[in-house]
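batch job 7 of whatever, protein = V-SNARE coiled-coil homology domain-containing protein
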Amino acid sequence: MSPTFPCPPVPVPQAGLWQCQREAEAVAGLMQQNMLRALERDGRLRDLDTRAQSLRAMSESFSRSSRAVALQRPHRSRRRWAAAAAGTGLVLIVLLVLVLVLVLRRDPGPVPAPPGATGPPPAPAEPPR
């Protein structure tokens, strides 16, 4: 079996030549369209590559700044704990002082009579009017 060609190698009449030429022009048109599409794709790929490089640079910058923030974070945490501890200690001291003042100012109530005394204690003298 011999392969079939769109344009046979044997001499052909004029109509066959025109048909081969039209097919060749159609193929050339398709090839031009394919080349244009390939050039468009190349432009889009270059744009994507530029954007990827930009994103890579931004991610490296973000990584550096996040590391710097992470290094500063323990210092802030220690300051917060120190401030909280100082505030708590101050509140406890104020409460202790208030409790002591209230306990010491409390009215002791009736004074017990000394041993051996009899009868009710004398009434206090009224001040003159």
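notes: The chain is about 70% helix and 0% strand.
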